[in-house]
């Protein structure tokens, strides 16, 4: 259709309009029809950092590039590659243009090609439109990009001030209804609200929206909201936004996970991210880009509150919606030094991402056919220190693959980032494997649930423990076989012992109301001479199903949780000695029960970071019949019992690792009596002060009461008198009236016939 | 402190009262009978309306009140009647008929006036009526009340005479506490949000200068009878049905438990059916007495503070005589308020 025809086709009115428009001048029109350099080129990409070659190698380069692109999944025809040529130097200019059939394919190519290696060169891919856009950004001459907001520098409040408490007390948080309080855990369960500088208890009405979580070192308090996550830090757990309060916008967030060193955060929402380009909330517009649409996971940098990368959900929820809803959390697992984050793609491999770039390690996932699960090996304090000096070992993961025809199931230890298999162990008749690393990374226990050889159903009926000694040469493995099912296993933190629960009760696994399942509990210890694990204590017929070690080891609580009739808690000490001589006789001799307790309706149990106190809580979220919490000491003495309606959460504030060196700790241990003397005095003074305060308060209450009563009595007497009535004087309680009761009881009755 | 268990009712208890000397206990129940008991041994002295056709109530007896001379008893019931009884003979002296059930009755301190609260139902408002009582000729009582207070707004659930009997203090379904002039029927004072739930009981202190209320909002509160100023709050974790003030010792006794409807069958412990002793001044719980296997509906304390009794949904009344140790114990050391009897 030519222009002439077009004009002819116009009606008279339209022609008039056109005339008027022309009169207005061309400026308007130009503006309106200006060619947007970004439009129309969505399908064009610029690839930079191409090797510089001369005419002779041009064809070869193009062929090689096409091969690479095809392999990466972004194949392109030769005629769609254009290579600008520098005629004066008779070489190419080091970049090429790719024209894809549509924007979608170009977008895909951008994702897969950017950062790929081509020989020695790393290719950089950009949208054609972006080049112009960024080139035209108003930078320089003191001008800042649009949207730049200058923020004055604000001093951060001390993030770890709570550790400076004179009495070295721990903090805990209680969440009741919508009310969140933070307390100091004083001696003997005396709670004192944590107060701000103004002397008022810390309170924030925003905290109680969904649920709360401490970061692993206790620096941040994370509160979940419908619109995202907020982290609160500093002595007030409040402050300016972006300084002591960090906000992470993620609509519908449900689960969060901190990295072990608190540098990063993963959030998960069951609502996919939308395209927020034109959203009314600025935070959403600024946080997420169009490439984040549809994703469920977000990896954040904590300090800058920036998105590092977003990920889609694991499986599309659909046929197996039920299974998807029971997603195992965490999906992303952090290496202990915050260097990597990894995710298991069940059946195909493990994707390891480097931080903070969030790029795939070596640009590709680790391909492992059939992989089911993996865990990172934790690092000891020594390892962390070594890593800081740049002398550390590689990280390590353990993963397992199930049986396939002609190939047994296998547990592997792999070094990251070198991907060397360090140890591999074959297993047979495997239903499931679970990894339990000792907290320092010294030992790994693989709990292998097994089924009978010829069994039709793959239901696990017995269990093996495969114990890897990770610090020794060649990673020796010891196998302990059980005939029973083992529902619980736990390493002593930083220790050489472990505890496990087994059950041969036929009622196990069936929820029969009123039937209490019996368990056996065993303790094992590493024999230092022989170098293998031996049983040191066997407890028969226990009802406890949950093992909780104290964070410093030695003490363990055995609890019955999830039963509708039993709520017992037992407190055990593994090194209980009355006199020194008994020590070192036989290994199990010192395993002693210190006490027992009961917390009706208990749903959760947790040690405080010092290992001196233990809190049991009953949460209304788990529909406990009596919500509330109790605090016990390690001996099993109940220090506090707080039944609270609509109680939800009890959380100890974690502590970072101690700054004392090994020698300093040893010194304190040795001279404990010296050290404790000074604290004994303080404790005594504290006790007096506490009771004195209370006493004064009570005395005040009593005197107020007495004064009020006297006033009132006087008033009422006068009133009575004015009406001519006598105050009814209660006659002095007359001598207690003795009520005597005669009770006749017939003891025996016999009839005798007296023959006269 | 072995309790004396009074097993004479077939249905749950609604109200129990001691007489002024504390040797008798009167219990009202949903089985339409009122019983009188010797408190010293739990023997039943007699019944009021036990045999059909002798002028007894014909429906749940909601409330019972005894005069200070133990001569007359007043009862109110779901059969829309209020009755006056001769305690010594067990005879019904007089019956008043109303349009709705009688939920609460009370004597004034001079024994010459009673009050009644009738239920708000079938378009009838909740009404508080004050009747004079002719003590000389008990069979001839007037039908016309001295005062009639037709309540607007939330209905009254409990009431009593303030000391000197000029005022009636009421507790309402909405949680309101109010004070009405006996002569004019006018509301002279009120606290709208005294409680956040229905007020279930109201009992006066021994000298009448303050009173305690219990409520479904799980708290009990102490108020000044003159100003209706809140003095103390006792917060528990269960809905409360009754509260009373113990003479001699600075304690109050609270009773309640999960609603009969929401009681689970698992264990009596989950229901929280204990009587709770709280320190009157320090607002701290000092002890509990177990025993009932249903919510406690009513509590009464011996006027000389020697015993207390609890009546529950399970149909039993338990009379507890305090041990010597109860009078001796000083849980807060030397801190003791002035004794009142």
UniProtKB/TrEMBL annotation, chain A:
InterPro entries, alphabetized: EIF3B (IPR011400), Nucleotide-bd_a/b_plait_sf (IPR012677), RBD_domain_sf (IPR035979), RRM_dom (IPR000504), TIF_beta_prop-like (IPR013979), WD40/YVTN_repeat-like_dom_sf (IPR015943)
Domain of life: Eukaryota
Region annotation (Disordered) ranges: 679-699, 716-737
Main location: cytoplasm
Record's subcellular location: Cytoplasm
A GO cellular-component term linked to this record: eukaryotic 43S preinitiation complex
Composition skew (Basic and acidic residues), residue ranges: 686-699, 716-732
Keyword Flavoprotein applies: no
PROSITE patterns reported for this sequence: RRM
Gene Ontology MF terms: RNA binding; translation initiation factor activity; translation initiation factor binding
Keywords: Cytoplasm, Initiation factor, Protein biosynthesis, RNA-binding
UniProt GO BP: formation of cytoplasmic translation initiation complex
Pfam families listed in its UniProt record: eIF2A, RRM_1
Keyword Cytoplasm applies: yes
PANTHER family in the record: EUKARYOTIC TRANSLATION INITIATION FACTOR 3 EIF3 -RELATED (PTHR14068), EUKARYOTIC TRANSLATION INITIATION FACTOR 3 SUBUNIT B (PTHR14068:SF0)
Oligomeric form and interacting partners: Component of the eukaryotic translation initiation factor 3 (eIF-3) complex.
Sequence similarity: Belongs to the eIF-3 subunit B family.
The protein's role, per its UniProt record: RNA-binding component of the eukaryotic translation initiation factor 3 (eIF-3) complex, which is involved in protein synthesis of a specialized repertoire of mRNAs and, together with other initiation factors, stimulates binding of mRNA and methionyl-tRNAi to the 40S ribosome. The eIF-3 complex specifically targets and initiates translation of a subset of mRNAs involved in cell proliferation. Component of the eukaryotic translation initiation factor 3 (eIF-3) complex, which is involved in protein synthesis and, together with other initiation factors, stimulates binding of mRNA and methionyl-tRNAi to the 40S ribosome.
Protein name: Eukaryotic translation initiation factor 3 subunit B
Name of the gene this protein is made from: PRT1
Automatic annotation (TrEMBL), chain B:
One GO cellular component, as annotated: eukaryotic translation initiation factor 3 complex, eIF3m
Pfam families documented for this protein: EIF3I (PF24805)
Source species, domain of life: Eukaryota
InterPro entries noted in UniProt: eIF3i, WD40/YVTN_repeat-like_dom_sf, WD40_repeat_CS, WD40_repeat_dom_sf, WD40_rpt
SUPFAM superfamilies listed in its UniProt record: WD40 repeat-like
Keywords, alphabetical: Cytoplasm, Initiation factor, Protein biosynthesis, Repeat, WD repeat
GO molecular function, one term: RNA binding
SMART domains cross-referenced by the UniProt entry: WD40 (SM00320)
Gene3D superfamilies to which the protein is assigned, alphabetical: YVTN repeat-like/Quinoprotein amine dehydrogenase (2.130.10.10)
Alphabetical list of PROSITE patterns matching this protein: WD_REPEATS_1 (PS00678), WD_REPEATS_2 (PS50082), WD_REPEATS_REGION (PS50294)
Single biological process term from Gene Ontology: formation of cytoplasmic translation initiation complex
WD repeats: 6-47, 54-95, 192-233, 289-319
Subcellular location: Cytoplasm
Similarity field: Belongs to the eIF-3 subunit I family. Belongs to the WD repeat STRAP family.
HAMAP family: eIF3i
Subunit structure: Component of the eukaryotic translation initiation factor 3 (eIF-3) complex.
General function of this protein: Component of the eukaryotic translation initiation factor 3 (eIF-3) complex, which is involved in protein synthesis of a specialized repertoire of mRNAs and, together with other initiation factors, stimulates binding of mRNA and methionyl-tRNAi to the 40S ribosome. The eIF-3 complex specifically targets and initiates translation of a subset of mRNAs involved in cell proliferation.
The protein's name in its UniProt record: Eukaryotic translation initiation factor 3 subunit I
